[in-house]
Amino acid sequence: MQYRRMGKSGLRLSELSFGSWITFGRQTDLSSTRSLMRQAFDAGVNFFDNAEGYGAGAAESLMGEVLKDFRRSDVVLSTKIFHGGTGPNDMGLSHKHLIEGTHASLERLRTDYVDLLFCHRPDPNTPIEETVRAMDVLVRQGKTFYWGTSEWSADQISEAVRIARECNAAPPAMEQPQYNLLHRQRMEREYEPVFERHELGATIWSPLASGLLSGKYDKEIPKGSRLDLIDWLRATRTEANLKQVRAVAEVAKELDCSLAQLAIAWCLKNPRVSSVILGASRPEQLTENLAALKLVPRLDARIMAELDRRCPVRAAS
Ligand SMILES: NC(=O)c1ccc[n+]([C@@H]2O[C@H](COP(=O)([O-])OP(=O)(O)OC[C@H]3O[C@@H](n4cnc5c(N)ncnc54)[C@H](OP(=O)(O)O)[C@@H]3O)[C@@H](O)[C@H]2O)c1
């Protein structure tokens, strides 16, 4: 495992990290969560990702229980605030919800601070200045070391940086976008100038497009798989996506690796990526996905060009 600097910060993230969306608390119990996190950590993973909205807090509670086994300074822990519940002030990025949501997350995670705190989505109903000031309070109070955004537009990120400079507040240090062979536009085009100018880190999510890029959805939706469990995700199993997945499978065959490994290794080739957040519901998946590291040096210019041809940047994705 290698460790990459998160943007221009001094923080080092394992290039592969481990997340909890949908899996923790729904597909895993305490014992299997513990085994998966230990497996990841033993392979060199130092960064674990969470959010207040995952399983309505259940994913944080499970992770918090398991983290008691670890030395706090050995792990980089993140959570995200936005989807805190159904009450009028339980959602979004108001000063009130950011502070209260973070306190509740820290309680569930059984820690005094997270290393990374993300604004899980942009909030059209809160001025960016209010959000920047609230995140600055959390940084100054030591509740988080760095704050960042997830799926904000490039313009919104630039605006947050500008406001932070103006009020001498901590600026965002990282973004958390979706990035995979089927979803390249935002990371590679929209964010490029903003990443260049502000040297933000990128902790990217869904490297397998929720499992599509493992190839297992080619013929059907296997029982108990994510697309079987989550109705709205089924819409991503389009003929266009399946066609591209099959085209990537041919390259994986040539390299004698699994499709999932190729998809993950491809994400790591992008130097803007600070960490690729893996998801896995089972230990075999994690073993397979962690082995993607060995493949990275084999993705030479010819293979990368081949993947570019088969999965070009799509404006709509
Ligand atoms: N910031 C955000 O808005 C945001 C959004 C989404 C995710 N995230 C974070 O990013 C993390 C990773 O995203 P993700 O979970 O969507 O990643 P992903 O790698 O795209 O999907 C992971 C899922 O694919 C299936 N899978 C994984 N490896 C496989 C393999 N080798 N063979 C077959 N199936 C395999 C598993 O689902 P099944 O076994 O259930 O089919 C697994 O849970 C999340 O856990 C979360 O922490 C952040």
Question: Would you kindly provide a written description of the structure presented here, covering whatever features stand out?
Answer:
The protein is α/β, with parallel strands linked by helices. It has one domain: Alpha-Beta Barrel (TIM Barrel). Helices cover 40% and strands 13% of the residues. It contains twelve helices and ten strands. An eight-stranded parallel beta barrel has the order 3-4-5-6-7-8-9-10, surrounded by four helices. A two-stranded antiparallel ribbon has the order 1-2. Helix 5 links the parallel strand 7 and strand 8. The longest helix has 17 residues. It is globular. The site of NADP nicotinamide-adenine-dinucleotide phosphate has 31 residues, from strand 10 and helix 11. NADP nicotinamide-adenine-dinucleotide phosphate (NAP) binds next to strand 10 and helix 11.
Main traits of this protein?
two-stranded antiparallel ribbon, 317 residues, globular, TIM Barrel, eight-stranded parallel β-barrel, 10 strands, binds NADP nicotinamide-adenine-dinucleotide phosphate, alpha/beta
